[in-house]
């Protein structure tokens, strides 16, 4: 029997029959014209209509949510041309798309269901002849099966749009792969990008955090007829969708908020750095709470140590003591064995490399056996699935002996334990990095305020792709600050690293999560005429003293001797009580026990705070930080910026102004007007005196921070500072014949900016 013809007519075509706008179905010989005519689901949630995506002028037929502030398309019919029965026809009467159905029907009708599924149904028996859920685009809706219909050879998978303006199939895909143990796999082109791991009876073993929740149910079905993943609504009022986003190579689950009338990201994959497929190579174990994240399994060592130590883990690890059996790249599953039977099965085959249960529910059952290198191993802090890996018996005996010895050994290796936050937690905490959550913009990228689900407030430093901070500097900041604990240093709560493309910097996210400082940074107050009034002199002195104690801890009292190299007002944060906390350790350097001076060909930092020997010759030491501290003290006192300011005749800067004021004995001329009335004159004069000692031209003339702290807290006589020299001047400078007030006006009104390698 011949199928009746359905058609959906493109623009400029007349209707074949009358058509009521807003119905949920059309019958044979009816048509739908590009314009105001749509099919609307019975519940009013979805509509089938023509649209143009983004900036494109091309017209497409698709299913989208109805009455949304912004167009939200969940399925596109004519991503590519085909032939068949339900068809889209262009102005030349050529078929652009069709269902390509051959099954006959007595009373066919096209209907848009409440689920968003467009179906070609035979009203005679209710059978579906075709449905859009079998041919998804980039979106998975609740009730849609993702995977295989083995009887029909049908593979349902998501394929991203090529771009926001082009719904043609992209190269970012997600679907069920049947080789070995069936599992969900995301691919970037042909390269495997992320895998979920097989279903273990409770969930996907690569996502143990996917737990029962009040919003949706999920399941994985695997039998001789079908293998698929599905999720369903628990409440019909909920609106969820899962989208393949090729722009950032992420699969995102969205939930609609009635309050904000917008889509919010409920979850994303990859969640973090360890979700990257085969990140750690063969027998490499990814531990998101470790630094670095990749560790060789016990009894294994890096295959290429130099590359491993350089944070390239792709070559993986090898056994310390090779097995005699040949390893084969195979796996096998047995559905009826218990764990002990699975173990025996593996031991009977010398090619078996590992085994585990396939179903961990009800005490565990089933058997999965691996015969090749183990790739894509990840360790979870809790609720992960155990896997048993084969090693030589002799190594087990040695390990047991070493374990007994270690129990009596008090020595412990220092280990870095830093929480790594999932990317989705940070996205949720910052409302997807909303502009309203942005605290400011630093040299290495923006900083956002966030709130975790437990109510804890955080500050998220998101490394910009255009910043100068690379992986080494990011790791440097992480490694240093996790070893530091002081009330005047900002506390690092954790970090987040996620790579969207393997071995590709583009698409990589690196973030540091700090304790939230409600009063932002010091420069936010001291350089603003209104906000500076919140910092009277006693509070300014407390800030100066707190900064000094923080630097002293870095130089002398911490486990590592650290030179900050970028002390400045914007890198001093203020808590709710205006207590200072030093931040930003991206360019900091550690010194050995006997090391006093370092040298670098790459001068980084902020000009205006740099010591002369560092700016000109790349020499840095604890005295470099002392110089920066002296500049910072003058800025706190005066409320004026020092960075990059010079008089046109190269003979005037804030150091020289402070020198003239100190020589004249008029400290109130330098102090910021907002703190002048509350100022303690002797304390102020002492601070100016100390700052001039700190900014002396030659590092050997500057005091150490231990001396600075004692001078700030004492009343003993201070040594006299040497007269300032300009950075490129060989001897004392001749100051203009101006009063201190005229000098200050000149500093404020006539200076030009000169920046070297700004941040």
Tags for this model:
759 residues; alpha+beta; Agglutinin, subunit A; Phosphorylase Kinase, domain 1; 4 domains; five-stranded antiparallel β-sheet; four-stranded antiparallel β-sheet; 13 helices; disordered N terminus; disordered C terminus
Describe this structure in words.
The chain has 759 residues and is α+β, with helices and mostly antiparallel strands. The chain folds into four domains: 1-134, Bulb-type lectin domain (Agglutinin, subunit A); 136-271, no CATH class; 423-515, 2-Layer Sandwich (Phosphorylase Kinase, domain 1), CATH 3.30.200; 523-753, Transferase(Phosphotransferase), domain 1 (Orthogonal Bundle). The chain has 13 helices and 45 strands. A five-stranded antiparallel sheet has the order 33-34-35-37-36, with helices on both faces. A four-stranded antiparallel sheet has the order 2-9-10-11, with no helix packed on it. It has a four-stranded antiparallel sheet with strand order 3-4-5-6, with no helix packed on it. A hairpin with a 4-residue loop joins strand 21 (240-245) and strand 22. Helix 7 packs antiparallel against helix 9, helix 9 (622-638) runs antiparallel to helix 11 (681-694) and helix 10 crosses helix 11 (681-694). The longest helix has 21 residues, at 537-557. This is Receptor-like serine/threonine-protein kinase. Residues 433-726 form the Protein kinase domain. It is an enzyme of class 2 (transferase).
